[in-house]
Amino acid sequence: MRIRDGQLIEIVYMDKLGTLSQRKIEVVGIRDGRLRAHCLTAGAPRVFIVANILAWRRVGEKRYA
User: Is 53 in contact with 47 (CB distance < 8 Å)?
Assistant: First the structure.
């Protein structure tokens, strides 16, 4: 299963301080180890470091990948 542009996904993310968060996002693009997205949780654009995404699933699925 791959993350693709335009997908609605839910992620578990660890920021640079080690804080964990769970967010629903719409993927805008992935390049150079960074995932650009519109965060539905925050209601704003965000950039996530792909290596810090600990788990993800498409919105509506029951399991994490």
Answer: no
